[in-house]
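Continuing the batch. This is chain 6 of the set; chains 1 through 5 are on the previous pages. Same settings as before, nothing changed between runs. Recording input and output for traceability.
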Amino acid sequence: MAQVRLRHSTDGESGSHSSMHGHGIPEPIGLEYIGSSLVSAGYSCHFRGNNELTISSASESARLCLFSALSCEYPGVIDAAQRAKARGETTVLGGYQASGYQDDLADGPFDYVVIGEGEEVAPAIAKAVIRGDTSDLYGFESRTVGSVHIIRALRITDLDALPEPLREQERLAQYRIYDLMWPPASQQQNTALILGSRGCANDCDFCASSTVWGRGIRPRSTDRVVKELQALKSDFGTNTVVFIDQSLGQAKRWTLGLCDAIKSAGLAIHWYHQSNLTIHRDVIRAMAEAGCSKIGFGLEGISPRAISIIKPANPCDIDSINSLFDYCNSLGLFVKVYLMIGFPWETEEIVREYFEWLPRIRTNQIKISYLTPFPGTSTWARFKNQLITSNWDDFDTVRMPVVHNPNISAKRYHEIRAALFRSFYGSDTYADLTQQMLAVYPDYIKCYREFADYLRQFNMVSDDAPWLEWVRYSQVSKVSAAVQR
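Output for chain 6:
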């Protein structure tokens, strides 16, 4: 996972950032965690926008405005920060862009920039700005660039000590997953994000996780995670959750304990998460029994040659990969595969391999991203001088290729990506897999109908794909008859 406020899902060819990623607007869980820490310290917090949190004190007139941004959100956050400065507010930037990129901060509209986790730093900054007491800032490493104070946060070791995110139903109600998901978008209620752990055991070149969370996994206690799920269910009626852990399932014992605790609590919540291809099958089964309805896997490469270059830790054997995916499907779990194109070493010859191999992958959904160097990653260090755009809006992984390839133009990449989607969703493999899933799990026809509408909206499936006709039937029993014809 590259930058973590998840925008899971299939990607369209155009449109807003949220629609291009198959999701509505997810809750700003990073700022919600910081907001709850500030409330615990005695401050009043108000969300002015999804990426903007305003802090004040009843006894003081000073105001502080905190922002969090992915790279693709950075231009909008800069505009909002400039408006906040015009109102006389002190501004703070955190999140992935702040942690990975400090090249132009001296010229930006921010008074403070926080690198890393902000829950302990934010109250110290609020105390300095609103109450004029800078004593709590002395415990943090800091430097000044121009008039900007850059503060490096301490790594939070006891995640259970953090209060639960500062949630509001209005924000949760905005979030829908238009992916192939159970429950389908039309039946999701107040969908939420949740963190069971922070950090990742892997160190992928293209992932910005370590710029904020550092390296290694820090889990919360399973009791705290289950209590948060219970609160989401009782307080908001949430029935769908996305775990945004970097790779849930890597810590096998902890994951099995979490699944047991969810089952014991009797929670009627369905959830999605991302894992890796080394996950144990007994963990997958435990997840399915605990309400998991979908798993995402970062395959990244499409052909064995591409996999060996992009993510050599992954197995390249299509049969073993399909065996894992079939096992997930047998338990009622949808499988989503994350893939990348847009590498400067790609040629038309290599791309032709993708059309051979992609239709052989037995997954229910694919996401095809362009290689996007995020600040702070080794991919950024390697390719930042080969970028073909300086517009951060383009760094959402799907709008356009951002790294120059002398062999394939940006226009040609758009054509290739669109053709790959239609090749995959129009393949016999996909049709067979869809038939098998509907035969065993007939209620999933609702998911496929809504997903088909989404794919058509972004021209990711051809009208002659056979499964599109099957899902129009009102009775799943007619699917087999349609196949026979």
